[in-house]
Amino acid sequence: MKELLWKHITNVRKQAPLVQSITNYVVMNNTANALLAAGASPIMAHAHPEMQSMQAICQALVINIGTLDEYWVESMKLAVTAANQNNKPWILDPVGAGATAYRDEVLSELLTMKPTAIRGNASEILALAKHNKTATKGVDSTSSSLEAVEAAQFLNEKFGAVVVISGAVDIIVSEAGITQLKNGDPLMTKITGMGCSATALLAAFIAVIPNRTEAAVAATALMAVAGELAAQNSTGPGSLQVGILDKLHNISETEFLNTTTILA
Amino acid sequence: MKELLWKHITNVRKQAPLVQSITNYVVMNNTANALLAAGASPIMAHAHPEMQSMQAICQALVINIGTLDEYWVESMKLAVTAANQNNKPWILDPVGAGATAYRDEVLSELLTMKPTAIRGNASEILALAKHNKTATKGVDSTSSSLEAVEAAQFLNEKFGAVVVISGAVDIIVSEAGITQLKNGDPLMTKITGMGCSATALLAAFIAVIPNRTEAAVAATALMAVAGELAAQNSTGPGSLQVGILDKLHNISETEFLNTTTILA
Amino acid sequence: MKELLWKHITNVRKQAPLVQSITNYVVMNNTANALLAAGASPIMAHAHPEMQSMQAICQALVINIGTLDEYWVESMKLAVTAANQNNKPWILDPVGAGATAYRDEVLSELLTMKPTAIRGNASEILALAKHNKTATKGVDSTSSSLEAVEAAQFLNEKFGAVVVISGAVDIIVSEAGITQLKNGDPLMTKITGMGCSATALLAAFIAVIPNRTEAAVAATALMAVAGELAAQNSTGPGSLQVGILDKLHNISETEFLNTTTILA
């Protein structure tokens, strides 16, 4: 399995997919750099008059609602519509799901446009599922991690998306089952936009790899393993951020195979 | 006094306040990372439909007008109104005060909404005071630093805000008096957004510490001391920026106590 | 020649020109930091009500269309109009020229406002020339690099701009002839916004140095040489980004003279 993931990582580098990101202001620079470091090419654009033609030249689309507003939500819908028409994958990052009614309403509309994949932390995935369930079908679980998996399974069944739950253990949920990765480092939570970078990598991998579940596992593993390795030489979140970009670029097959930890 | 400041620093880490920033595009990433490194949690949001509910879940608000426009000014007013209704502190960073009439007008409106604290460099504080004084009460001082202190005192008296004047010596002005800190490093002026990060820390500290003046001194000291310590291992502004984020996270009590310099 | 370029570099530091950038969200932080590291002062502003008065206090203007939209295009036109009225230089960075009809239309309008200089990669310069040529005057060349030079010459003749073509060899084209610089490092292509930083430096140099061609060569050389030197101590794109900011600040005359490579 790990060898297959590494093959996918090298394939992304070879094919260098062009990924359009409609994402939040806070992480645009990191996101573009994470894509470049992993061998993909970033495009950031949001003007309504060019959403259709911009999507046509890209291989995938990231929709990240972190700093949404009315104009940008319309940009998102235009780009998603174009991606769907062109059968291009698009990935939803539901930043702050559950924080405000506005976010939840926008996310509900986006969900009906059927994202290829969704990535968020457990509370975002839970909020997303809760807001889009009928009231009678309550989530009933004692473990919040289990609860998030159930929420992810619901989202996968209802909307067809592969779902990645980021956390100390990253969990990839799809119709193919559940994969758990135990990589990363707690210091990664002290840098903004790590999740957003993971989402962008997810888009690059799904653009290139036909099996969406494998693509999601490979992208998630790459991000977490790069973070874990970089943390070994970091003295704080500043140097970790720099080190992750370095490692996304220079990670070796041996490093990747020796570090990736897939839970049974 | 220094021990008290350190206690405040550890309190911010323990309580991890959620700080909403409506700030400029240039520094959003740094600002979020500075807050995370100091143990707080950042939220960046500006959409009108969610300003009320977003503020309700935050403990403080930063208003930084660096890249303002008509939409964002309205976001600022909506968020400030919500903060005031909820008795949450909000901090004003008057970037570019005095540079254009538009900025001065926006700042005048924001001032009437009574910021809990204001942070800027001497020329911004001077411009802010000048624009909001009656013509007859001229500032009359031979030293520009003294002049800025008088301007800060005026702002404190008229609008009730604690005022932090950033510079080679940082000056905190409030109804409790004047505190001067001699920390930092000249290389910090070669990185964009150091002041904006200081403002964000100020918000995090005021969110948690009941005494606003102490909060302002502690936040200002933390930023300047982290910069001073990081500069010792930097070869230029790039590595200094990285080093400051590291140091905000890993600064020890001994480092802080030994480096902080409060002028008599 | 190299000594002259170094003299220009020190002059920018001495005069510290104020450069307004209307640029894309992805690179604003890097751009501001590159300007600061090279000794200039950045201002980022785009609000319509302040475009006229903001330009009046700046020495140069950068127009970078990377993340354009309708509001920002209007900001660009207002600022360019002000710059032209005040005889201030303005520099065009045609990010993504040729990618969408919207970009090409906006760029055509901006070109008629006569930029002092233009900087882009070969494909952008080619797209810019192609879109603004009459159909009968086709570009006819077997080498894409030669083709880009012809496109640059066309843009110089028709619109009067100095044109910088970024690439493995940077080419500066003006009425004074063609200069080719062979510096930089392939790893620079794995960082977002290197070209945008080069454009910003170009603005700072043209603000201060009367001979536009010399200014363009000096700015282009500084960016490429800083990148080349920083790459020697980098382990990936993250550390290279940090190292370039350091080197823009601490580069010595000897380093610059020994590294700069002007092709005959």
TrEMBL record, chains A, B, C:
Residues reported to bind ATP: R119, S166
InterPro entries: Hyethyz_kinase, Ribokinase-like
Protein name: Hydroxyethylthiazole kinase
Keywords, comma-separated and alphabetical: ATP-binding, Kinase, Magnesium, Metal-binding, Nucleotide-binding, Thiamine biosynthesis, Transferase
UniProt keyword Manganese, yes or no: no
Catalytic activity: 5-(2-hydroxyethyl)-4-methylthiazole + ATP = 4-methyl-5-(2-phosphooxyethyl)-thiazole + ADP + H(+)
Keyword RNA-binding (UniProt): no
Short name of one Pfam family: HK
Function comment: Catalyzes the phosphorylation of the hydroxyl group of 4-methyl-5-beta-hydroxyethylthiazole (THZ).
NCBIfam families recorded: PRK09355.1 (NF006830), thiM (TIGR00694)
Pathway given in the UniProt record: Cofactor biosynthesis; thiamine diphosphate biosynthesis; 4-methyl-5-(2-phosphoethyl)-thiazole from 5-(2-hydroxyethyl)-4-methylthiazole: step 1/1
CDD domains: THZ_kinase
Similarity remark: Belongs to the Thz kinase family.
Annotated GO MF terms: ATP binding; hydroxyethylthiazole kinase activity; magnesium ion binding
EC number: 2.7.1.50
Any Gene Ontology biological process: thiamine biosynthetic process
Gene3D superfamilies linked: 3.40.1190.20
Binding-site residues for substrate, renumbered to this chain: M44, G193
Cofactor: Mg(2+)
